[in-house]
Amino acid sequence: MKRLSTAALMCLIALTAAWAAGPSIRWESTVHDFGAFDENDGRVNCIMSFVNDGDSPLVILSARATCGCTTPAYSKEQIMPGDTGHVEISFNPIGRPGRFDKKIYIETNTKPSRSTLTIKGVVIGSSNTVRSKFPVDAGALKLRTTVIPFGEIEKGRTKSMFFDAYNSSGDTIFVAWEGMPGYLSVAGAEDFVAPGDYASFAFSFASDMTPLYGIVTDSIYMIPDTRRPDNKLKVTAVGVVKENFAGMTAIQRRNAPVIGIIPENVDLNIVARDSAPIKETVTIRNHGIDPLKIRRIYTSDPGITIKTDKTEIKKGKTGTISLVIDPSAFTGKAINAKVIVISNDPDNPTTSFRIVGELK
Asked: Which helix (H) or strand (E) holds 261?
């Protein structure tokens, strides 16, 4: 093995020393936790210090935050070897209730040049700020709404939605749920919300767990604080379950069932409000080739009872919808009810007819 000459060794040491020379930054801490504080207290500030462990002056070139609510300030003077410098960071909580975690990037003439600082904490919102963002009062827990709107869901699929809440108190709140239907679930049977913190409850709607098509709605109950189990808040979950026809072939489309409804509207003419329930019938015909499957027939209007004699109608055949209308269940001067029919007709899966009449 060849040995390095003394001159070569000295040269290598000099080169290593030259490479290692320069400023070096060492932060006393890169994270500051403000803890929980009131929004009304206004801006909060902290100082994050560092030491120049190098052998030449250290200079802060720039400092920037990821959010306009956070402002870093620093001295542009050189920090000599062995000396201490600092960055002062200010956070504005106005209009920002809840937990926060902000990054501040510091660029210096060191290697590496970037340092990342973090400030975090929890803002306990003022009553005005909380009310504007979470208008529903459930005691210490405030809610954006009491409705979970899932929108349209294809049959056989699961869709998730978040239900937001905010803890306006200084205590941890434990939340529970009751009356959950089989198709609906929420992540965790019981969850806690820290003081001044947000919570997003993840709800899932499993459409294959309900036999219904069309509008599916249920009321569940939220216990906003398990220390008061009798204090329950009704929350409404609503979704629209629809059939997925995307996978049909051209032949299946050509042979698909075609729904027809006769008459298009049921006109009761003039009806006495105190008259006996009225019976009417509507005919469903399959104008297509494959069997027409009736998924559901329903109405959201009161005083109407609906029955059908068939749930599957063959090519060219008909089925009957039997209606019983109770005039006394309607308010106002007229009957104007909508009946929805859902079928496996891919071009017209949801159709409807109206029941109309004048009340006297």
From this structure: strand 259-262
What's the burial of 271, exposed, middle or buried (CB within 10 Å: 0-12/13-18/19+)?
A: middle
Which amino acid would we find at residue 222?
M
- What is the rounded CA–CA span in Å between residue 127 and residue 276? 54
Reading the block at residue 199, the tokens are 């919570």
Residue 226 tokens, joined: 């398990």
Distance CA(277)–CA(193), nearest Å, equals 52
Please check whether residue 217 is in contact with residue 238, taking contact to mean a CB–CB distance below 8 angstroms. yes
Overall size of the chain counted in residues:
360
CB 172 within 8 A of CB 192: yes
Closest CA to 268 of 351, 333, 325: 325
Q: What is the mean pLDDT of residues 286-304?
A: 96
pTM surpassing 0.85? no
pLDDT above 70 covers what percent of the chain?
94
Cα gap 156→207, rounded to integer Å: 5
